[in-house]
UniProtKB/TrEMBL annotation:
Keywords: Hydrolase. The lineage of its organism: Bacteria, Pseudomonadati, Bdellovibrionota, Bacteriovoracia, Bacteriovoracales. Gene3D superfamilies: Metalloproteases ('zincins'), catalytic domain. It comes from Halobacteriovorax marinus. InterPro entries: UTP_pyrophosphatase-like (IPR053136), YgjP-like_metallopeptidase (IPR002725). GO terms for molecular function: hydrolase activity. This is Metal-dependent hydrolase. Residues 86-139 form the YgjP-like metallopeptidase domain. The keyword Hydrolase applies.
Amino acid sequence: MTKIDYFQGYPQNIRDQFEPLIKNGEVRSYLLNKYPIGHQINSDKQLYEYANKLKQSFMKKSPPITKVKYVKQKNLIFTALGDHTSISGKHEIRIAVCLKNAPEEMLQMLVVHELAHFQEKDHTRAFYNLCVHMQPDYCDVEVDTLLYQSMVDQDEKLY
Ligand SMILES: [Zn+2]
């Protein structure tokens, strides 16, 4: 089996802290302990309302969101290196369907990331500042979402 480097581009202290969880099969218990319950945002309509509420709270002046939907894809997250496919020009938000079975914080993190792209195209400091403005623990949740990705890759369920 090929070993995936989930923390590519992350500082060594992050690697030292979180790689052992993957290596020792402790990701699920770590995540369950931190996020005991999942969310109930299951339909595209609920997801749209959720995203729109965040947008109204923090980015009222940006153009409206065209569409928000769950899509079938295994890759939940762009990495720190920024390899995700942004379609921000269309003001459309697509969220991996595996996020239905994830903590709300992770769903929020992905929505916040996409919303921030409405304003900042690249992963600049201004971009991350905007993300943290919308979700103060954005960076922690990003790391936890990579851990969750490792579960999805193993076809493991969190809840
Ligand atoms: Zn991005």
